[in-house]
Amino acid sequence: MKSKIFFSKFRSGIFRRELWMGALALLVFFLVLPVSTLMKVELWAEQLNQGMKLWEIQQNYAGMLSFNNLGLLIVTFVSAAVFGITGFAYLHNQRQVDFYYSQPVGRRELFTSRAVVAVLYYVVPYVLNLVLALVIGLAKGVCTSRAFSMAGLAFVHNILLFVIAYMLSVIAMELTGRIFVGILGSATLLLYGWGICYTLMGYIGRNFVTFDPRSVKWLEWIGHLSPVYWGVSDYRNYTSAFTGKSIHVSGFILSMLFLVLVGAATTVLAYFLNKIRKAESANHSMAFPKIGTVIKFAIVIPASLLVGVFTDTFTYQRRFTWTICGIVFSAILLNGIMEIIYHMDFRRVLRHKLQLLLMVCASVAVACIFQFDLFHYDSYLPEREEIADVSVGMDFTQYATTIYADGIYTMAKEYMQEQTSLGNTDIVYAMLQQVVGQQRDIGEEKASVDLKIMDICYKLTNGRRVYRSYQVDPADIQMAFSRIYEMTGVREAAFPVLKADPERVKDIQLCYFSEYMQVATKQSPDRIKLLKAYQQDLVEMSGEALTTEAPIASLNFTYGENEEAYQGCMIFPENKRTLACLKELGYTVEAQIKDKQVELIEIEDYRDDNPVLKSITDAETIDKILPNLVLSECGTIWQQYENNVYVNMSIRTEKGYIVRTSCYFRKGSVPNLD
């Protein structure tokens, strides 16, 4: 018989007994929000005096109260797990189960009261400390309307994550009958999808030469089996989205709707399991024995594969043998451990040998799929009639560069790939056939030294996009790419400075022989003249010149009041207008290093077991060496260099002081140093 009066008192009793959860949450939130806010605000005040902008402080403050605060995410998941485990720990004690089930309160009321108390003990401390942190921001003058909106959105997001993680912990407690097994089950449910995602990424990254993260979007769906994965991925996505100039509201709303649906589903499942769970399940490892085998397969196979990822790193020889050994050994060990946990009997360690054999075979089969590329991932090339368009991204310089284009920062290679449209021509498809055919023959030693990365996006006629990241020898595609470069739009994608607005240019720096010189400022009309000269040179520059000539200097353009810089604008010997304009401004950039400028060349040759160190000051010897050198600060992927040979030059500038700069020898041009 149920009693409403008794239920009210019963719920109040639970609220009082679980008061420690609220006190603990209040303390932790106090440290994560108000205390950390005060510390950060004091630090920002010092940085403000040192030149930090007020808008940067306001942006950082807003991020602290929302998606940029990793501490909030940690508190959310830890508190959900702790509240779920402690709140339903009574299910694992037969005396407590008999006591609670003998009261005039139904299972529904018992489940609801504990869930409501847990959510309240999370929400109330969160709200109180969030308000206090906002008051601190208002008092310090760094709180804006944006901070309020971002804090509110993050609050809703974290509550949904808490509910999902809490209900999963409750489900783990309901599926088990021993507290230790329940804790393991809770951790497994919270981290399961993330673990599978990490394991598969390990096999993909180690075995697929052409792997591009954008080509495995299906991994995100596997990751969604874990709320921790959602939280971390949302933390990364919204940290960049909400601290930038644009807010992806539609994407955020869809994500919240997804979390609402998952939260509702987990709540219903937790309530259903609580309703059908037998009271006699306490002190049994599994409350529902029939699903024990399914759980064992779901844990042993991914866990043994994960161990195989680590054993793969033991040596560079026979790596796959170590992977298989790790998989087999861990599968046997994990199967035995789970059998012991299920039955609390060490004699059951080798029971169900057929199940063990099936798990080992399944794990080894998955490893073989990746090792031998049975699905032909690396050799994939769509049929020509299936391709609607192709885009390409490459770093033209020796090192990856960040650019400022279209109002945002992005990697130069990524921007180029987003902007290019090569179509489906004979030249493009022939180059792709050549590149794809070479991938499986690439040796690790050569791949780490000589090859460069070319990102390709196949835009298929059915609307699907397929991404691949190929390792290529620039010499193999040099001729083809020089012709592709001259196609419509490729030049602009490779050099976004062609679309730069001259009126937004604040200043221009010249980097020549490792020396940075400001050649034009916002107050000078020369900045517009120099930019237009450089843009015209790039428009007229041929693909052959781009892939054969070595740059001799570089220009850096700074835009806007926030000093957003565009980097990596190389100056080639063919850029006559730019060189002439620089000369008018008083900066002479020579197409080649002159021996009269060089006072010392130091060469370090580590190609052999016995390193050779050589210092050269003789003008005649220097004159012979200089044509074979390329400045390292201006290197491109098209220039072939000698590996493990390092050159440092001491150059006397026109102003009379010495500048040291590093260089590379062109391939096959290292002189005899004996």
Could you please describe the fold and organization of this structure?
- The chain is an alpha+beta fold and 674 residues long.
- The protein has 4 domains: 2-178 and 227-278, no CATH class; 384-494, no CATH class; 501-584, no CATH class; 593-665, no CATH class.
- It is 55% helix and 14% strand.
- It is built from 23 helices and 14 strands.
- It has helices spanning 4-17, 19-49, 54-64, 70-87, 94-101, 107-140, 145-175, 179-207, 218-223, 227-242, 249-276, 292-311, 319-343, 353-371, 412-419, 426-438, 444-449, 474-484, 490-494, 526-540, 543-548, 576-584, 619-625; strands at residues 387-393, 402-405, 408-411, 452-460, 465-472, 505-512, 515-520, 553-559, 564-571, 598-605, 612-616, 629-631, 645-652, 658-665.
- The strands form 4 sheets. Strands 11-10-13-14-12 form a 5-stranded antiparallel β-sheet, with helices on one face. A 4-stranded antiparallel β-sheet has the order 7-6-8-9. The protein has a 3-stranded antiparallel β-sheet with strand order 1-4-5.
- A hairpin with a 2-residue loop joins strand 6 (505-512) and strand 7 (515-520).
- Helix 3 runs parallel beside helix 7.
- It is globular, with a radius of gyration of 32 Å.
- The relative contact order is 0.06.
Sum this structure up briefly:
By secondary structure, the protein is of the alpha+beta class.
**Biggest β-sheet description:** 5 strands, antiparallel
Number of beta strands: 14
Rg over alpha carbons: 32 Å
Number of helices: 23
Give the mean pLDDT: 82
Overall geometry comes to globular
**Total tally of structural domains:** 4
Tell me the structural class: alpha+beta
Order of strands in the sheet with most strands: 11-10-13-14-12
Q: Could you list the spans in which at least 5 consecutive residues all have pLDDT below 50?
A: 240-247
* Span of the ends, CA to CA: 101 Å
